């Protein structure tokens, strides 16, 4: 498989990236307009979230036609031009394949509802009475994972929204249909694929109630998932393409198989364990302070485990489903710039391929909406009602949404301090963050110490220093809750990275071998004195030291 160790991938949520035609919705031509910015940033691939024909119940992850462009995003001609212009700049495009489910507006599902047995077998329909779902599983968006169709006297499975019906991967015809989708986009010049919740595609052989959880333990990393992935990758000949799987509630052992060199499944995996360290009792909708010791332990487990297994991580903090990391683990006020840089360096210098989510490179924050009417996301609106039914006040429910909603990451990209932040000339589909006058691309281009310039440096270092791309990783200071520290080693090349989680000074012991290290990156313009091997770190500081090859 191709080596992607020195590559950096930039995720674009087209609806919120750049509006070229003034309708308040980002589009494909808008992406093309910003290619020079992305080239200057230094990224190698652009992952675009779905822009296919869709009712937009789940912002495009409810696909109604895998081969057609939703008119709100433009035309096939616009897409062909985007692919061609990206190639001119040596940037590859990655498309988002939602193969666990389709929209109930998809022709396949409409024909299933019309009674065609062939297309009913494309989905997971179960016989049953109106008052008794096949299992007690819960949808990830709240409520039952089953929906009854009176005209058929059957239930269909939807692990997500009721309009997202799960596909039946046991049916060979379904797999062939999806392979043809991959082949179609390959022929268009697409260079990579991201597979949405792909570890959920293999469902259990026995359908049973879950009296311990919401059902996920029965369908996550299912019995034939590795077999299905191997077949999909082999038959579409994408072994050498960049491929990443979104792995919901997965395990280290499975991810070693998903992305191991010998397995020939995927290039790399997203896992989300490190983004649950502020979930109280493991519940996304209950808030608590982040558990930094747990975060450190998870990084060490996954980084070293994947290294031992000769498998590959996708490195990320943010995406279209996650809150902004500087709002979550950083400091939006006094140490906004310092904490954004520290969090970036921490993840970019680890073993794996880094992903940047649009706006992360300028330190965009959560928008802090104050009214449920400002939210668009179906999950957020569903859980607002659920939280109220559980006894939360409106203020408490809104506080939780302000920290957890997927809309936190979907506000328009902040290009300038002009009205609507340079994203559009008209009111956007979702309210802009109110700090765009201070946080925007144009302002950071003028600041030699900006977060944007720090990201450029990180991307350049990964390409210049093979130890970052290919070196082994080893963690230090494992008992220090304030500091995350690790080394990267490749032969005689060595670098040392230490990061202060806190908004106050922290200390760590510096071993003798690193006392004479050369500082190659940091977010403070200061020289540090080693007081008998004790290194004092400023609030949210990152220091990167290098040792020569002599």
Description:
- The protein is an alpha/beta fold.
- It has 17 helices and 22 strands.
- The protein has an 8-stranded parallel β-sheet with strand order 13-12-11-5-2-1-15-14. Strands 16-17-18-22-20 form a 5-stranded antiparallel β-sheet.
- Strand 12, helix 9 (252-259) and strand 13 (268-270) form a beta-alpha-beta unit.
- The chain starts with 8 loop residues before the first strand and ends with a strand.
- The model has no long low-confidence stretch (mean pLDDT 96).
Topology:
Blueprint: E1 9-12, H1 28-33, H2 35-41, E2 45-48, E3 52-53, E4 65-69, H3 76-88, E5 92-97, E6 101-103, H4 107-113, H5 117-120, E7 125-127, E8 146-149, E9 154-157, E10 164-166, H6 172-187, E11 192-195, H7 216-219, H8 225-236, E12 242-246, H9 252-259, E13 268-270, H10 292-308, E14 314-315, H11 325-328, H12 336-348, E15 353-357, H13 378-389, H14 394-404, H15 441-445, H16 451-464, H17 466-470, E16 472-476, E17 483-490, E18 493-500, E19 506-509, E20 518-522, E21 534-537, E22 542-547
Parallel strand pairs: 1-2, 1-15, 2-5, 5-11, 11-12, 12-13, 14-15
Antiparallel strand pairs: 3-4, 6-10, 7-9, 8-9, 16-17, 17-18, 18-22, 19-21, 20-22
Helix pairs in contact: 6-8, 9-10, 12-16, 13-14
């Amino acid at each position: 498989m191709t080596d992607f160790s020195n590559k950096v991938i930039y995720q674009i949520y087209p609806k919120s990236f750049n509006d070229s035609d003034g309708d308040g919705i980002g589009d494909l031509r808008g992406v093309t307009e910003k290619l020079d910015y992305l080239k200057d940033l230094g990224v190698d691939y652009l992952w675009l979230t779905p822009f296919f024909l869709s009712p937009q119940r789940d912002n495009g992850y409810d696909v109604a036609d895998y081969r057609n462009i939703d008119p709100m995003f433009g035309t096939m001609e616009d897409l062909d031009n985007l692919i061609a212009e990206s190639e001119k700049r040596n940037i590859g495009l990655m498309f988002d394949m939602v193969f666990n489910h389709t929209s109930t507006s998809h022709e396949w599902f409409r024909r299933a509802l019309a009674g065609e047995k062939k297309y009913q077998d494309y989905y997971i329909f179960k016989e049953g009475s109106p008052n008794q779902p096949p299992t007690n599983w819960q949808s990830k968006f709240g409520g039952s994972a089953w929906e009854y169709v009176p005209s058929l006297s059957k239930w269909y499975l939807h692990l997500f929204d009721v309009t997202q019906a799960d596909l039946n991967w046991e049916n060979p015809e379904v797999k062939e249909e999806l392979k043809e989708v991959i082949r179609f986009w390959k022929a268009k010049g697409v260079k990579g694929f991201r597979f949405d919740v792909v570890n959920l595609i293999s469902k259990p052989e026995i359908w049973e109630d879950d009296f311990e959880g919401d059902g996920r333990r029965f369908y996550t990393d299912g019995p034939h998932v590795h077999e299905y992935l191997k077949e999909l990758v082999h038959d579409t000949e994408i072994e050498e393409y960049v491929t990443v799987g979104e792995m919901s509630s997965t395990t280290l052992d499975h991810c070693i198989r998903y992305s191991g060199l010998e397995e020939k499944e995927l290039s790399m995996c997203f896992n989300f364990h490190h983004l649950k360290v502020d979930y109280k009792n493991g519940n996304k909708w209950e808030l608590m302070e982040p558990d930094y010791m747990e975060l450190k332990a998870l990084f060490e487990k996954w980084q070293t485990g994947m290294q031992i297994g000769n498998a590959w991580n996708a490195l990320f903090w943010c995406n279209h489903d996650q809150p902004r990391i500087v709002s979550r683990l950083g400091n939006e006020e006094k140490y906004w710039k310092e904490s954004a840089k520290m969090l970036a360096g921490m993840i970019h210098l680890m073993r794996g391929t880094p992903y940047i989510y649009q706006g992360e490179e300028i330190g965009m924050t959560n928008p802090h909406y104050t009214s449920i009417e400002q939210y668009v996301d179906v999950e957020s609106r569903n859980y607002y009602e659920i939280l109220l039914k559980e006894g939360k006040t409106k203020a408490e429910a809104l506080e939780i949404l302000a920290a957890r909603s997927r809309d936190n990451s979907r506000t328009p990209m902040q290009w300038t301090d002009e009205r609507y932040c340079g994203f559009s000339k008209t009111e956007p589909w979702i309210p802009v963050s109110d700090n765009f006058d201070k946080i925007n691309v144009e302002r950071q281009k003028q600041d030699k110490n900006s977060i944007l310039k720090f990201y450029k440096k990180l991307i350049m270092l990964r390409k210049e220093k093979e130890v970052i791309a290919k070196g082994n990783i080893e963690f230090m200071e494992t008992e220090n809750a304030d500091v995350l520290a690790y080394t990267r080693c490749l032969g005689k090349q060595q670098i040392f990275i230490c990061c202060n989680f806190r908004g106050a000074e922290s200390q760590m012991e510096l071993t003798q071998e690193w006392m004479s290290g050369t500082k190659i990156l940091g977010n403070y313009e200061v020289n540090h004195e080693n007081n008998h091997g004790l290194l004092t770190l400023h609030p949210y500081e990152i220091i990167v030291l290098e040792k020569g090859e002599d």
